[in-house]
Amino acid sequence: MSTKIDDWLLEILACPQSQAPLRHDPETDELVCDRSKLAYPIRDGIPVLLVDEARSID
């Protein structure tokens, strides 16, 4: 099940590594940074914006 991330929240969230904007990927239910190639998990509806918790994407 995909988490609903409000547009206003996506506008203020940024990747902690690159400070680039994040986008929500509903298929994986993660917040993705295209610049740093990291995907941040969403647990219980809360984005976990820790680089140590992110997974690398191609």
UniProtKB/TrEMBL annotation:
Protein name stated in the entry: UPF0434 protein GCM10007147_08350
In its UniProt entry, the species of origin is given as Nocardiopsis kunsanensis
The signal peptide, as residue positions, is none
Query: Which lineage is the organism of this entry classified under, starting from the top rank?
Result: Bacteria, Bacillati, Actinomycetota, Actinomycetes, Streptosporangiales
Q: Which Pfam families match?
A: Trm112p
Q: Which family does it belong to?
A: Belongs to the UPF0434 family.
Task: List, alphabetically, the GO terms of the cellular component aspect.
Answer: cytosol
